[in-house]
Amino acid sequence: MIKLNHKKLNVYKSSIELVSEIYKLTNTFPSSENFGLISQLRRASVSIPSNIAEGSARSSDTERKRFLQIARSSLVEVDTQIEIALTLNYLNEKDIDHLSDLSNQVFAMLSKMMQ
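Above: the chain sequence. Below: its structure as tokens.
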């Protein structure tokens, strides 16, 4: 793997942890959601660290900020999908305690980086 500076960022590390948590949680979803909510949640969560990484490789502040905005938007998408999973009783509040903490942490770090 390439040794790049973005891998040292706390926001990047936390977003990778968030992806791991999403994968663990979606393993408990019904198999009927394999091509629905599971796939969508996993893709949206992977988009977060991917956009942080891609933005870090850009040369201008405007481009970097745009990729951080996309990462934050993907995080909001994940939050919405988790809310749907709660509504469908695929998860409960206890299931997502750590996920909620991570999500809020990543959201705050991304927002601060965008300023």
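The longest helix spans residues 61-87.
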